[in-house]
Amino acid sequence: MSDFFIRMLCISYNFIHYVKPSLELPGLFSVVRMRIASSADSSSNNSRSQMIMADSGSSDEVAVICNTDITSTESENNLINTMVERGTALLKKMEISVAEADKRTGKNTVNMQETYTVYLIETRPAESVSEEGTPAAPDTLWRRYSEFELLRTYLLVTYPYIIVPPLPEKRAEFVWHKLSADNLDPDFVERRRVGLENFLLRLASHPVLSNDNIFFLFLTEEKGWREAVLETGFQDKADSRLKSLSAMFRVKNPDKRFTALKHYSEDLSTVISQLLRIRARVADRLYGVYKVHANYGRVFSEWSAIEKEMGDGLQSAGHHMDTYAASIDDILEEEEHYADQLKEYLFYTEAVRSVCRKHELIQYELEMAAQDLSYKKQQKEELETGTVRIFSLKGMTSKLFGQETQEQRESKVAALEQSIQEGEDALKEKNAESQEFVEKAWNDIERFNEQKEKDLREALISYAIMQISMCKKGIQVWSNAKECFNKM
Amino acid sequence: YIHKQSDLNERTCVEPNTSLADGNPMPNSPDSMVNQFRLDEENEEEQQGAINKDIFVTVDNPESHISAIETFITYRVVTRTTCSEFDSSEYEVRRRYQDFLWLKSRLEENYPTLIIHPLPEKFVMKSMVERFNDDFIETRRKALHRFLNRIADHPILSCSHHFKVFLTEEELAPHRKLGPGFLSRMSETMRAMANSVRGLRSKLEEFAVMQEYVDDFSNKMCSVDKVTNRIIKEHREYMDELKQYGPTYFQWAESEELLAEPLKGVGSCVERCSKETEEQIQHLSEVLVPTLHEYVLCADTLKAVMRRRDNIQAEFEAKNEALASRTTDKEMVDDLADRVEQANNALRGDWSRWRTSMRADLKSAFISTAAKNVDYYEKVSLTYCPSSLYAVCLQTSRTLASWFFRAALLPHRC
């Protein structure tokens, strides 16, 4: 823990001198795990943990108390701004991780052999320590990517007002030449493993989603989970919701806030895509610069063989050139974490847009219900007063071919009244639904915005730290090379 | 370590290496060179032969001359000297590239086995550079400056009559017509060709070793030159991408509120990085590339020197054989024998001199490059440094920021 803290402080250039050359920056994802571990440990002087004991099992959010007098443990905890800052009941109960990935072969839906990857989900009760002081063995189960997708689809349908965390990409995108676009490539699998763990932790730390039973079963029941999901009948809702995403309808009075949010998420999506694309190209070029220096290593070595006084200096300088060329691999691998953090928010924009569209659908349905009701009311009024304000074929025919009887009219009015009553009930329902949706959605949107600000700011800071670390390595190598040249 | 032209005259710290290929911009005048030299005298290293240095030359002020027949560039050559061989202590003449070629060929003729620093190449039509492009002219000017100064530094070459004429005579044209004519040069070349067909009887071990070294050295220089050019190319492509990368952050910042600050921060860091890369490229092009290039040409010079030495020996051997069949006389053979001896000695002496200055030049160029790279990384790391980040940390977490203060880690630079 303190290791990471020191690294964060190494934003200061002067302080850099004391940093170990290999600055492995824990990504946001692994930070979360550490964070969970620490919140399990520091039960003594952490005020939050007192609330844990009091509220175990409740689903209330626990507010973070920003103390002014800060103990070192507390400041460490506050330092790491992660989604776990608001502890959920689920996270208080268990630790979750995606520990491994493995290959399986089996028959797929069209009865053909295929190779796919499975991921090991580990859960263990929080604060679990066995007699020897080591953590207890975790419960485990294996899941493949398509099951994660199923879980997410279920959540999207069941909680349409929630910005559901995205899954890591299915296929590698924004790839620079060294990276593989192959789904079975071990590096890709590893990054996906990290992404899936992040996904689960995002869910587990969400105030609403963490309480979902299907999610809980996903983590705990290997067999029978699929059936349980299907039993919820979410597919039906899915079908009707699907039309919200593809249908072309126009809302008369769109909610300005949602419109603004939709535009923002579109802008964000565009700009992050562009950023990722160019970053990949920059990475490619930087790779080229570093690798070319390996040629210096080779040539200096050959050249040193024919020189007497210059030989040693050249030879050792050549070695440093090789070191320099090799160093880019680690540097760029670390930068992939940064790209992954950006990608997560790129995919998040899709979720945001989907919430906006669902709201549009609800708004539209509301408007339709209101329109429908007012039409019926007008019809009733017409029938009662005998005036024809609304053009209808029936009205025309009755005008042409004679009025209806009093009886007929009365029965019609009665039917309309019923219809109107139903319409009013429907409208009330829709209104309530809409208001509930809007309230819950904005709740989650605000939560999301806060999370986004923190995460992206951290990502940018860590990017800067990475750059400084890269420079530090460069300074070291070229200073050494300069020393060798001096000895020529 | 970026010197400005104006700084040189008031320079207080001096690089111990007096090699002119160390990448420092040319001094303004021979006067400042004299001053620099006097300061350098305090330092010990590599002053061999230069202690007697009394000719200081600068090449500057290129001007184009347009006549009916042709357009060409002349350079001003200013000499300041205390050498008694010279009538005056200061001279100023204008010379064109052809004049330098003349001087070089005269020197090669008179001192066939001395190693003369290469001239910049003739203009090649097919190359991308225009003949009157400013960069081309400047690169050439610097190389011409180095050429003359190497001769001025040379204990033997600096006493050459042709060198003196070159530096002092207003009009070079009349002198160019004197001296061995075209025909005599032709015959010498023919003789050399004939001799080389015969081959040498025996070659001294030391020259065989030298030959091998020269061939290897030539290969290595070409390789290093190629690699360096590739590095520049990669740097350029990297810089081009960076130029697109930075603006994306600024574009993103436009649609953000709280995130705008850190985004703009990173964006401006990337921009700074791109500027520094540009400077890095410039430094490589001005320091390492010309030096390597000159030593690629040097390798060719060395090959020519070895060939000339071989020819002298071959000529002697041919005449020596003819002695047996009495088609020639002993006196001539003795002369040729002396000539061989002279040539070999001259080469031996100059060889170690050349090795020393080669080592100094390349060492200095590589050190300068490494230093520039260190400088580059220091600057880039500084831009990513706290002051912008500190503000961001402050927003992220008061506790993080307060820890900053408490640990008193704010560097004084920021």
Automatic annotation (TrEMBL), chain B:
Extract the InterPro entries matched here: AH/BAR_dom_sf (IPR027267), PX_dom (IPR001683), PX_dom_sf (IPR036871)
The segment(s) forming the PX domain are: 53-173
Q: Which GO terms describe its molecular function?
A: cysteine-type endopeptidase activity; phosphatidylinositol binding
What is this protein called in UniProt?
A: Sorting nexin 7
Similarity field? Belongs to the sorting nexin family.
GO cellular component annotations of the record:
early endosome; phagophore assembly site
> Which key words are in the record?
Protein transport, Transport
**Where are the annotated coiled coils located?**
none
Example GO BP: endocytic recycling
Q: Which residues cross the membrane?
A: none
Cell inner membrane recorded as keyword? no
Q: Which organism is it from?
A: Poecilia latipinna
